Amino acid sequence: MNNRTKIAISIGILLVLGVGLYAGVSFASSPTSGAKSTSTSTSDAVTVQTTSSLTTTTVNTLGFPITPPTNNSVSLVRIGYFANLNHAQALIGLSNGDFQRFLGPSTTIQTTLFTSGSPEMTALLANKIDIAYVGPSPAVNAYIASNGTALRIVSGVANGGAVFVVRNASNINSVKDFAGKTFAAPGVGNTQDVALRHYLLVNGYKTTDQGGNVTVVDTTNANIVTLMVKGQIDGAWVPEPWGAILVAQAGAHIFLNEASLWPNGFSTTELVVSTSFLNAHPDVVKEIVAANLYETQWIQNNPQQAAVVLNNVLGNLTGGPVGLPVVQSALTRLNFTDNPLESSVLQQAQNAYQLGDLGSVPPSSTNLLGLYNLTILNSVLEAHGLPQVAG
Asked: Does residue 307 share a domain with residue 272?
């Protein structure tokens, strides 16, 4: 574990202990009355109470439960997610009550909005959340840090939707122009942070903390926009819609769509559950998995309506308008899927290991095998006549 990973864990611990790293508004989703709101002060998180793989069109065979469950095994489920389009199923389903309809009246949803995966995984390890929408790199980090005991990936969420954007005035026309530049990523150990640093490495660059001549700044997506508008960074590797936002607001263009590096697709978001919660409450996990699959199909079948809904939700969560054309542009670089894309997760873990982020044992399909539990997902798919997922 290198210093960057240690910093990420330290920041996450501070976040979980509530040392002033949160800032935002809290909402409560009631299983009987719909919604009620309170405010709380908690910049890395905001606490809120409240199908077939790799296809872009599918028959929406999954509907709401005819008879919602009324006697779940737990009265509260705590879900973490981001204000990123890669988390679209959570953005839609948690804001409009769809997830609650799958859970029924006996379980309340409490959600926490994070800005990066490292603090989110620290929260899961500290039993502050039960379920997380998160990128594969933080999920693998947490899995390895817990010796494979803390969490399981129970479904895929998003394929693609990450871009390397550069400022026009920085005159970056090829990888030969990176020397002396400053780039940003949204958080130490974040999936895009690993992607950026690995891309620099394979193109012959070292970061300044490794004695090289390229600086990498880890900060929030919102701050990345501010820094690029001010000309204080030359580029950033970010998830959507932040790439599209940078293009629209910061005089920038997409230097690289990360999808071009992954001919068979790559995971940017997984649905992760703490092992203890999965073992104790498989009924609730199944309801969340079904809700996620429903939203996946709905987005695939209603892309224009989904863009409108997502634009509104993102505006509410980020405190300012995103813009429908920005969201529509960003969505062209995203696919939503139930497939966790295991081969891409393994490759991303191997990339992180090459950077010194994952300890002394190189990741392999064998030592990451326990990371997945797709039994519940496949039972839902089978029940609705949909192809099962092998990974």
From this structure: yes
Domain end marker among 211, 233, 261: 261
109/271 Cα distance (integer angstroms) = 16
The predicted model gives 37-52 an average pLDDT of 38
Assigned domain for 390 exists: no
Q: Which two tokens stand for residue 369?
A: 């095998």
Closest CA relative to residue 50, chosen from 38, 39, 40, 35: 35
**Spatial separation of the C-alpha atoms in residues 188 and 185, rounded to whole Å:** 8
Question: Strands, E, within 225-350: which ranges?
Answer: 235-239, 252-257, 267-274, 334-336
Q: Does 33 have pLDDT greater than 60?
A: no
- Spacing of C-alpha 162 from chain mean position: 11
311 assigned to some structural domain:
yes
Give residue 200's domain range: 162-261
The string of DSSP codes covering 43-68 is --EEEEE---TT-S---------SS-
Locate tokens 């940017």: which residue?
268
Determine the average pLDDT of the residues in 41-59: 40
Mapping DSSP to helix (H, G, I), strand (E, B) and coil, where does residue 231 land?
coil
Q: Which amino acid is at 76?
A: L
Instruction: Say if residue 116 is in the same domain as residue 220.
Output: no
d(CA 122, CA 16): 7
Neighbour tally for 284: CB within 10 Å: 26
**Do 42 and 24 touch, CB atoms closer than 8 A?**
yes
Q: For position 56, which CATH number holds? A: 3.40.190.10
Tell me if 391 is assigned to some domain: no
Q: Which two tokens stand for residue 159?
A: 């394929």
**Taking the C-alpha atoms of 343, 189, 146 and 84 in order, what is their torsion angle to the nearest 10 degrees?**
-70
Pick from 236, 261, 286: which residue ends a domain?
A: 261
pTM confidence score: 0.86
Residue 140 shares a structural domain with residue 15:
yes
Percent above pLDDT 70 for the chain:
84
